# Entry
Amino acid sequence: MTDKPSYEELAQKVEDLEREVTMLKEGKQALEASEETYRLVVEKAPDGIGIIQGGTIQFSNPALNHFIGFSQEGLQGRPFFELIHPDDREMVSEYYQKRLKGEEVPSGYSFKAFDRNGAAKWIEVKPVIGSWKGKPATITFLSDITLRKEAEELLRDSEAALTAILDASPIGIGLLRNRKMAWGNRGMYNLLGYEGGSLEGTSLRMLYSNDEEY
# Structure
């Protein structure tokens, strides 16, 4: 006949059970708090965050919705490549496929995309491989760099215009770097009697008969 557990043994089992229940409750609360923290981080992030699986957008945060111009419902299930400019679709598709295969690809790159109204935007992305609902997915961090790209283009245009103006000037104009010719306009080369480009990287001391530093 099996001996019945003593009162002390029963009390200990109850105490152990209560401890396990308490630990489970605390664990659940910690998990819920962690999930809430991650949710707030994703929702309040200044950059776009999207989850792409099977070539379609499964999740997008408010920042991504804002600069693309769609609601989360409008983006969810939409093919990601529909938003990419035709000029860049091949590049993005190649990187996407290689990343899923674990091959070497750039950690970040930029491409042109379309917003809801069809306006072109520049986007910089930094994708990482993760999972979504138990299946492989790409977690992509996106930044709207349209203004930066436009500023860079304006700067290039301004530099090209300035170079053209200086090159057309009859006055000799040169740029020295470390006492060597880095650039000179046509007026400079005509003045010195050299062909364009032949002086670049050359010290100008060779043009003078004295030892004065330039």
About this structure: The longest helix spans residues 7-44. DSSP finds six helices and seven strands in the chain. The mean pLDDT is 77. Helices lie at 7-44, 62-68, 72-75, 86-100, 146-168, 186-192.
